[in-house]
Design goal:
- With 334 residues, the chain is α+β, with helices and mostly antiparallel strands.
- It folds into 3 domains: 4-68, Arc Repressor Mutant, subunit A (Orthogonal Bundle), CATH 1.10.10; 72-209, no CATH class; 217-329, Endonuclease, Chain A (3-Layer(aba) Sandwich).
- Helices cover 45% and strands 19% of the residues.
- The chain has 15 helices and 13 strands.
- The chain has a 4-stranded mixed sheet with strand order 4-5-7-6. Strands 10-11-12-13 form a 4-stranded mixed sheet. A 3-stranded antiparallel sheet has the order 1-3-2.
- Helix 2 crosses helix 4 (41-49), helix 8 (153-163) runs antiparallel to helix 9 and helix 9 crosses helix 12.
- The longest helix is centred in the C-terminal third of the chain and has 17 residues, at 280-296.
Length: 334
């Protein structure tokens, strides 16, 4: 191993390359690894001031190009991996950090701190951007992923519900159920064993609100908004056919007895749901033709957006109520 005196005699660019060779595949570099390899803090500072590395927490760095090109959620996961490398195998990624690890959406909240559950029973605390949880982990509560312990989907969903606002918690539950990463029976069974944990009182109520049919957080929020009002609960993900039995569409929400349906308009329909070779404009045209077919078959259609649900919930409830009243006033065509 080269010693510090030899490093000082090296060309700075050569020394930088040797330091950068310690970066892991995720783009993470720990100070302790740099020191263990015989380098010093000056070598690290040189990479930071040279914009090759970004300091993301005490003792942890990330390739600046990786950090700057990452989304907020991706940056959190980079932080999670750095923290896990610092703490070792006595902890498991958990709660909101594990939710993001699995890919679940966090609606209306930000995961600013890394959440860890201590497998050795250490008391919970919060320090240096890390929330330390203590909770009994049963067989199946944790799994190995990318060299780290992560709570299972079932345990992650329930842990998240313990600390999230109600609507955000149901969005997480719906996502895990829709992705078939857990089942409602598995969630209920594990929740029984968490009955005396802090924040566990609403768990069963939250599970009663969950619905695996929700295809996006927006749909979850619309469903909850309707459920909390005096509007009758709709049928989710209803397949609609024409008079001859030919399939027309699957709609987000419907009141079949009123021949009325509601569609949530989210960006997903214009981004991740694009068909091969399709542009956003193509998707808009396709959606318009789909709606025309539904109207021609006798269905009334109302559309609700993310802005409607998040920023104007009361007004949106009034719109839906008026829409259904209009459907009731239609002359019977049967």
């Amino acid at each position: 191993m080269l010693r510090e005196g030899h490093h000082q005699a090296c060309d700075p660019s050569s020394l930088g390359r040797m330091v950068m060779e310690l970066v892991d595949p995720d783009g993470i570099l720990l100070r302790r690894d740099v020191i263990a390899a015989g380098y010093d803090d000056k070598a690290l500072r040189r990479q930071v001031t040279g914009h090759a590395l970004a300091r993301i927490r005490q003792g942890a760095y990330c390739l600046r190009s990786t950090w700057e090109s990452s989304s907020r959620e991706q940056r959190h996961l980079l932080m999670v991996k750095a923290v896990c490398r610092q703490y070792g195998d006595d902890v498991s990624v958990s709660h909101l950090s594990a939710a993001l690890w699995w890919g679940a959406p966090l609606v209306g909240v930000r995961a600013d701190a890394v959440h860890l559950t201590h497998l050795d029973g250490e008391a919970g605390r919060r320090q240096a951007g890390v929330v330390h949880h203590r909770g009994a982990c049963h067989v199946g509560d944790v799994t190995r992923a990318s060299g780290h312990w992560v709570t299972s989907p079932t345990r992650t969903a329930l842990d998240s519900c313990l600390i999230l606002p109600r609507r955000s918690a149901v969005c997480v539950l719906d996502w895990f159920l829709h992705q078939s990463l857990t089942t409602i029976d598995e969630l209920r069974q594990r929740a029984i064993g968490m009955g005396n944990w802090p924040g566990s009182l609403p768990l069963m109520h939250l599970l009663a609100l969950a619905d695996s049919r929700a295809e996006s957080p927006g749909e979850t929020l619309v469903r909850l908004l309707i459920h909390e009002s005096d509007i009758p609960d709709p049928v989710s993900q209803l397949d609609i056919t024409d008079a001859g039995g030919a399939w027309l569409a699957r709609v987000d929400f419907a009141w079949p007895e009123k021949m009325a349906l509601l569609e949530f308009d989210g960006l997903r329909k214009l981004t991740t749901d694009l068909r091969e070779g399709e542009t956003a404009l193509d998707a808009v045209v396709r959606e318009k033709r789909r709606e025309d077919r539904l109207r021609e078959a006798g269905w009334l259609v109302i559309r609700v957006t993310w802005d409607d649900v998040i920023h104007h919930p009361a007004r949106t409830v009034q719109r839906i109520r008026a829409f259904l009243a209009m459907a009731d006033r239609r002359p019977c065509t049967g």
